[in-house]
């Protein structure tokens, strides 16, 4: 135990592992070695870990961790620093963490640049529900240049990303259009501030929003590509962060050119440390004041014990979720 | 004749008109009314007008002028201000002009924000050869964020856009790769400074440049879309400014996402006046010093009289052109 260490750290810990690589539901708590720290990392005792679609993809074998990252799932968490390693952080400090992996565990090693403070009055589960969506939305809205007066279209407005994006864009002064698959989900979006509500089962968003969207935040990929380009306004920017509707789609370059449009596809996980540190710092600067003053509220759908990760994945996969699912770690 | 007027301006002038809308070669000099000035425009007596692929498309019926623009072809020219209209410009001043149309004529009305000075030592034909390519390349390299140390891939390196882009990117400190269809054209590109020369008839540029290109400036559209995405580096940006290889292409969003890549498609002509004024000002600031000190040289393939516009179009369409074709106006 060094002077940087807050409490006795056990050599092993419990973490969720995929016990059968062929079975995405085989998520079980197992005893594994506690992570060792690399230069610039701190050890965090996890109190709550957010569940993201990336974790579902990883369990299904479609989203391996980037080189050097933990094999354990979990892309965000909240907890307490217990070993500051080589950094000047203080053991005992509560932190939110953006992770390349490792959150579904009792301890996780976190690069110092990926630590966020606790917004005043927020619980660990609430913090764990907001780190990944906030960093994702902030970095993509910066890329697309969303500004006051713009119209943003968010697909899947009732999900974790969507529910955050609605609130963030409204705080920026944008008009927000959303798609969702039920009247209940659309009502949830409306309560978060969404201005234009579209049930994708009943209406064609591309027709309703033709040439109107300055920015589109998309999770569908190929399935919506052509419709999204139709919905773009002049100088509009489509940012694709998920491919739930397929990987390869037809791009009408002529239509895109007539609008001077842009299509970007991004992911946070594989970014390098400097990039992530910049995004985390921007997110804390731009978003955390909005969390403290209540302009953005957490959207915590439910909290389950870490041991029930399989059930959490099933819930998220089934799609009847508004906001986020978080795993609590005893 | 007002005090702002340099010389007697005739009520009519000669200009190239398409006499048969079904025949793109029916380009003839005809007598038409001299343009009248709108607020903020000056009248320029044209000395030389650049020929661009957009003019070929317009003659073929595929690229109508934007609302409010002249029906006459010609997207750039050099000449002398003969009527300053409501502006503070000085009649008698030699200028280069970025145009939404109207250059294939003895006189053209030009928004003040689209005037450029004459670089010291440059002739009207030389200036007319560089305005459109310089504004196009500068605005697209700004969009894509090309910087020193980056690798830029330019398709059609021996053409007007290509020959300028090579020199501009080298001046910025980038490594430049080009494609062209013959050893002669590639040698021309090499002499302009290109570092990597690829004959697209013999080699697969996507294989040679896989994951290496920070920026790609493309004129082929659909035909090269998939290969271009393969060639992009991490955080790379593909900018499409022409669709000589078709309008609709398959976009591999998964591959784009794995690189956090962007695809933009742009055109200069339909931009609003404020946008064009900004681009013209940036181009004069960033490029004109390089024209004066010789780091960028004009690439004037040949000059033909205005009356031979049809022949100029035929030459450009046949593809045996390195650099630009300019029409001289007596």
TrEMBL record, chains A, B:
PROSITE patterns per UniProt: QOR_ZETA_CRYSTAL (PS01162)
Instruction: Recite the UniProt keywords alphabetically.
Output: NADP, Oxidoreductase
Q: Which GO terms describe its molecular function?
A: NADPH binding; oxidoreductase activity, acting on NAD(P)H; zinc ion binding
Q: Which domain of life is it from?
A: Bacteria
Give residue ranges for domain Enoyl reductase (ER): 24-327
Q: Which Pfam families match?
A: ADH_N, ADH_zinc_N
Which InterPro entries does this one have?
ADH-like_C, ADH-like_N, ER, GroES-like_sf, NAD(P)-bd_dom_sf, Quin_OxRdtase/zeta-crystal_CS, Quinone_OxRdtase_PIG3
Endoplasmic reticulum found in the keyword field: no
**NCBIfam families attached here?**
quinone_pig3
Instruction: Kindly provide the name given to this protein in its UniProt entry.
Output: Putative NAD(P)H quinone oxidoreductase, PIG3 family
């Amino acid at each position: 135990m060094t002077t940087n260490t807050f409490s006795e750290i056990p050599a092993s810990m419990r973490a969720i592992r995929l016990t059968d690589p062929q079975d995405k539901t085989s998520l079980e708590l197992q005893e594994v070695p506690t992570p060792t720290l690399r230069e610039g990392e701190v050890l965090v005792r996890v109190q709550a870990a957010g569940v993201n679609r990336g974790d579902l993809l990883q369990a299904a074998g479609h989203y391996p961790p980037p080189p050097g990252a933990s094999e354990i799932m979990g892309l965000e968490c909240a907890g307490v620093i217990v070993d500051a390693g080589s950094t000047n952080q203080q053991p005992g400090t509560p932190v939110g963490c953006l992770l390349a992996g490792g959150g579904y565990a009792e301890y996780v090693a976190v690069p110092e640049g990926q630590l966020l403070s606790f917004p005043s009055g927020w619980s660990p589960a609430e913090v764990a529900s907001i780190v990944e969506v906030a960093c994702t939305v902030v970095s993509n809205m910066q890329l697309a240049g969303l500004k006051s007066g713009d119209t943003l279209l968010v697909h899947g407005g009732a999900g974790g990303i969507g529910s955050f994006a609605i609130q963030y864009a409204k705080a920026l002064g944008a008009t927000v259009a959303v798609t969702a698959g039920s009247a209940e989900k659309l009502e949830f979006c409306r309560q978060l501030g969404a201005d234009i509500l579209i049930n994708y089962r009943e209406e064609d968003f591309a027709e309703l929003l033709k040439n109107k969207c300055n920015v589109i935040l998309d999770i569908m990929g190929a399935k919506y590509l052509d419709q999204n380009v139709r919905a773009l306004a002049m100088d509009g920017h489509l940012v694709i962060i998920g491919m739930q509707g397929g990987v390869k789609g037809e791009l009408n370059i002529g239509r895109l050119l007539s609008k001077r449009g842009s299509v970007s596809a991004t992911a946070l996980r594989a970014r390098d440390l400097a990039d992530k540190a910049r995004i985390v710092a921007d997110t804390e600067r731009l978003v955390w004041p909005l969390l403290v003053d209540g302009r953005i509220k957490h959207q915590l759908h439910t909290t389950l014990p870490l041991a029930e990760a399989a059930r959490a994945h099933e819930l998220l996969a089934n799609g009847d979720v508004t906001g986020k699912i978080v795993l609590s770690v005893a």
